Inverse folding.
C-alpha cells in the first residue's frame, strides 16, 4: 500500500509491492522449468533465465533496497514503504523460490535427464576409466587456468569478482589425526577461459555423461595441493551492486562517468554472497575475514551457483529435447520488393519479430547507406549487437559523406560496453554522435532516412518496440513499423531535433513522446473512455506492456474501472495494480504470458466509441518510462495493419496454455480450447504468405 500525497487529504491506493511483483514474475519463469510439456533442454534454459534474472535483481533492486535502508531515519520516513520491511519480505520469498528451484533441479531436471540417458556426474560418481579421463582432461585444459590462493595471515584481502564462482577449499594435513583443517584456500572456477561451465565425457553405449567444471576440479584437487591428504570444497559467489546512480547527473563527461561506473561494477559493495549451506562455519568466517563481506550479505544457495551457465549446457545433438524449429517467416509484401525505400512510398508495413525476419531493417539501413540520393540518416541505439550490421551501415553512410546522427544510450544497463564501442566507431567515421542525455535515458527505438527526390527532401521512418539488435530479435516478440507517412515522419524528425536542442516545447500531431506529452495523452485517452462509459456507451481498453508500476496511471485505471470501463491488461512482468477488487477494479483483468519468446511489445488500444485507436510503443507504464526517459508511442493507421495487430492481441487474450491470470496469486489457467498465442501467431502470419512464395529463409 502506498500513500498518495497529491490530494489535500491523503488517500490510500491499493498496490502490489513492486519488488514482490517482480519476484512473482520470475516465479512464472520457474513454472516453465517445472512444466514437463516444455522440452527438457528448454526447461534447463528456463532454469538459466530464472537464475540470470535473480542475479540482476540482486545486483540492482536488492542493492538499491540496501542503500535505502542505510538512509537516515528522517529520509526513510518520507518513503512510501519501509525498505527494511520490503527487504525482509523479499528475502523470505527468494528463499522460498530458491528452495523450489533446488527441488525442480534435483527432483525434476536431473531425473528427466537420466531418462534420456544423460547423466550429470559428480566427482563421486566416476568409475576408474572416467576418473583417468577427467584427470587427463584437467591437466591439459583446466589446471593451466587455475591459481589457488591460501587464506592465511599474510593475505590481507582477497577480492571476489562479481558473478564469478569460487571454490573455498579446506586443506587437511596428512600428519594430523584430528579433523581440524590446517589451512583454507580459494580458487576461481575458470568458466570463461575454459569455454563453458560443463565438461562432456566420452559417450559409452549411448549413455551420455557431463560434469560441472566445479566437480572436475573437486576430483583433481590433489593435483593442485600435493602436500595435503584430504579436502573439502564448497562454492561461493558474490553479486555486487550494479546500480549506476547517474540518472540525475547533469554535468561532466557522461562517457567518462559510464566508464568509471563500469569499473566500479566489479568493485561495488556486495549485494549478496551465495554459499553452499553445508559449508563449515570456520570456512565462511575465513572467507568473510579475507574479503570484507559481512554476515548481512550471506545468502544460502546450493552446491552449485551461477545457474545462468546452463545456457551453455550441452545439447548432445538431440533435437527432440528442444523446441521444434520455427523458421523465420518472410514478410508477404516486403519480400517481393527490391527496394525497401520504394516499397515504403506505396504504404506502411508492420513486421512482427521474431516470427518474421529482422533482415528487412538490416536491408533498409544498408540500402540507405548505399543510396546516393539519401542525404541523412538518424537512429537511436539502445542495446546494440556486438557485431551490429546496422551500426556498420551507419558507419558506412558517415564515411560516404551522409549526415549521420546517432543517439547512443550509454545508460543501457549491462550493454554499456558494446554501446561505447560503437559510439567510438561512429565518431571516428564522422557521425554526429549524441551520447544520450544526462538527465533522461533514451529508450525509444527510432530510425529516420532523408532522401533528395527531385529537389524535395522526403523522410522515411522506422519505429519499433524492440532494439536494433540482430541477436535479441530472434527471441524478443516485438512490432516494427516501416512508414513514409508524412505526419509521422515529421514527428520523428521532431524527436531527433529534441536530442539536438533539448527543448521541451516540441509539438506532435501523431506521436506520443515522453517526457513531453505521452503521460498526458494517455490520461486523455483514458478519460475519453470514462466519459463514454458515463454516457452509457461501450467503453474499453486493451493495454499490453512489460510493467505497470506508475501510481498515477494505476489510479486512473481504477477510476476507469469504477466508471464501468472494461480493461484487459497483458503485463509480462511487474504489475502493481490489484485487479478484481469490488468497487475499485472489478472491471480489470490482468494476464501474463511467459513462453518460448520474451513478450516485449507494448500495445495500447482504446475503444473510442467504436472508432478504435491503436498505439504501439517503446514505453511501459512505469514512472521512469513516462517521466524520466525519452519514449515514443506511434499510431497504427492503416486498416490491414490494424487487423494484423488486433488478431495477434486477441490470440494473446485467448491464450489458455501459457497465460496466467494475475490477482494476488499467480494461477495458471486451464481450459479445453488450448490456444498457445505464440504458436498461433506464427501460424497466422504464415498463412498470410501467398502460395508459391517461399515462406522462410535464413536470416543474415
Amino acid at each position: 500500500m502506498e500513500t498518495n500525497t497529491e490530494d489535500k487529504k491523503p488517500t490510500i491506493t491499493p498496490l502490489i509491492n513492486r519488488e514482490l511483483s517482480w519476484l512473482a514474475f520470475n516465479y512464472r519463469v520457474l513454472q516453465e522449468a517445472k512444466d514437463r510439456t516444455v522440452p527438457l533442454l528448454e526447461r534447463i534454459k528456463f532454469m538459466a533465465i530464472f537464475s540470470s534474472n535473480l542475479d540482476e535483481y540482486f545486483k540492482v533492486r536488492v542493492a538499491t533496497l540496501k542503500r535505502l535502508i542505510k538512509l537516515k531515519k528522517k529520509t526513510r520516513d518520507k518513503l512510501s514503504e519501509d525498505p527494511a520491511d520490503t527487504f525482509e519480505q523479499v528475502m523470505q520469498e527468494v528463499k522460498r523460490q530458491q528452495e523450489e528451484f533446488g527441488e525442480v533441479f534435483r527432483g525434476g531436471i536431473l531425473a528427466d535427464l537420466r531418462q534420456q540417458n544423460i547423466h550429470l556426474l559428480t566427482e563421486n560418481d566416476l568409475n576408474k576409466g572416467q576418473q583417468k579421463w577427467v584427470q587427463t582432461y584437467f591437466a591439459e585444459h583446466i589446471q593451466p587456468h587455475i591459481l589457488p590462493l591460501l587464506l592465511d595471515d599474510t593475505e590481507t584481502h582477497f577480492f571476489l569478482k562479481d558473478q564469478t564462482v569460487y571454490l573455498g577449499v579446506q586443506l587437511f594435513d596428512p600428519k594430523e589425526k584430528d579433523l581440524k583443517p590446517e589451512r583454507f584456500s580459494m580458487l576461481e572456477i575458470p568458466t570463461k577461459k575454459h569455454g563453458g561451465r560443463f565438461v562432456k565425457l566420452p559417450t559409452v553405449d549411448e549413455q551420455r555423461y557431463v560434469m560441472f567444471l566445479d566437480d572436475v576440479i573437486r576430483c583433481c584437487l590433489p593435483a593442485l595441493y600435493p602436500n595435503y591428504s584430504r579436502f573439502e570444497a564448497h562454492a561461493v559467489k558474490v553479486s555486487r551492486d550494479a546500480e549506476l546512480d547517474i540518472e540525475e547527473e547533469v554535468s561532466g563527461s557522461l562517457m567518462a562517468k559510464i566508464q568509471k561506473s563500469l569499473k566500479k561494477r566489479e568493485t561495488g559493495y556486495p549485494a549478496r554472497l551465495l554459499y553452499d549451506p553445508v559449508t563449515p562455519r570456520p570456512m565462511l568466517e575465513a572467507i568473510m575475514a579475507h574479503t570484507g563481506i559481512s554476515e548481512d550479505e550471506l545468502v544460502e544457495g546450493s552446491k552449485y551457483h551461477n545457474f545462468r551457465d546452463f545456457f551453455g549446457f550441452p545439447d548432445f545433438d538431440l533435437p527432440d529435447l528442444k523446441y521444434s524449429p520455427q523458421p523465420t517467416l518472410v514478410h508477404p509484401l516486403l519480400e517481393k520488393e527490391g527496394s525497401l525505400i520504394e516499397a515504403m512510398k506505396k504504404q506502411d508495413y508492420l513486421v512482427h519479430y521474431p516470427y518474421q525476419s529482422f533482415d528487412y531493417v538490416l536491408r533498409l539501413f544498408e540500402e540507405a547507406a548505399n543510396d546516393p540520393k539519401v542525404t541523412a540518416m538518424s537512429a537511436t541505439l539502445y542495446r546494440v549487437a556486438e557485431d551490429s550490421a546496422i551500426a556498420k551501415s551507419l558507419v558506412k553512410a558517415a564515411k560516404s559523406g551522409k549526415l549521420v546522427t546517432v543517439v547512443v544510450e550509454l545508460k543501457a544497463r549491462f550493454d554499456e560496453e558494446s554501446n561505447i564501442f560503437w559510439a567510438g566507431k561512429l565518431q571516428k567515421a564522422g557521425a554526429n554522435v549524441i551520447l544520450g542525455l544526462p538527465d533522461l535515458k533514451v529508450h525509444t527505438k527510432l530510425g529516420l532516412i532523408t532522401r533528395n527526390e527531385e529537389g524535395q527532401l522526403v523522410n522515411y521512418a522506422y519505429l519499433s518496440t524492440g532494439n536494433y539488435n540482430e541477436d535479441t530479435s530472434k527471441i524478443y516478440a516485438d512490432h516494427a513499423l516501416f512508414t513514409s507517412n508524412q505526419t509521422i515522419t515529421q514527428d520523428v524528425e521532431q524527436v531527433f531535433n529534441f536530442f539536438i536542442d533539448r527543448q521541451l516545447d516540441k509539438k506532435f500531431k501523431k506521436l506520443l513522446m515522453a517526457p513531453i506529452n505521452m503521460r498526458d495523452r494517455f490520461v486523455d485517452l483514458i478519460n475519453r473512455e470514462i466519459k463514454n462509459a458515463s454516457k452509457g456507451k461501450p467503453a474499453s481498453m486493451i493495454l499490453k506492456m512489460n510493467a505497470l508500476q506508475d501510481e498515477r496511471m494505476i489510479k486512473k485505471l481504477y477510476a476507469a474501472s469504477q466508471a464501468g470501463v472494461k480493461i484487459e491488461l497483458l503485463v509480462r512482468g511487474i504489475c502493481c495494480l490489484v485487479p478484481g477488487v469490488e468497487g475499485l477494479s472489478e472491471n480489470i483483468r490482468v494476464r501474463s504470458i511467459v513462453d518460448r519468446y520474451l513478450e516485449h511489445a507494448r500495445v495500447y488500444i482504446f475503444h473510442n466509441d467504436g472508432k478504435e485507436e491503436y498505439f504501439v510503443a517503446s514505453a511501459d507504464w512505469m514512472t521512469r518510462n513516462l517521466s524520466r526517459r525519452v519514449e515514443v508511442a506511434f499510431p497504427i493507421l492503416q486498416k490491414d495493419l490494424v487487423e494484423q495487430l488486433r488478431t495477434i492481441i486477441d490470440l494473446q487474450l485467448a491464450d489458455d496454455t501459457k497465460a496466467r491470470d494475475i490477482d494476488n496469486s499467480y494461477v495458471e489457467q486451464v481450459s479445453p480450447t488450448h490456444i498457445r498465442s505464440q504458436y498461433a501467431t506464427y501460424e497466422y502470419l504464415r498463412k498470410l504468405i501467398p502460395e508459391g512464395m517461399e515462406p522462410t529463409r535464413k536470416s543474415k
Residues 201 and 280 are 31 Å apart (CA to CA). The domain at 117-314 is CATH 3.30.1840.10 (polyphosphate kinase like). Confidence is low (pLDDT under 50) at residues 1-10, 244-255. The two ends are 49 Å apart (CA to CA).
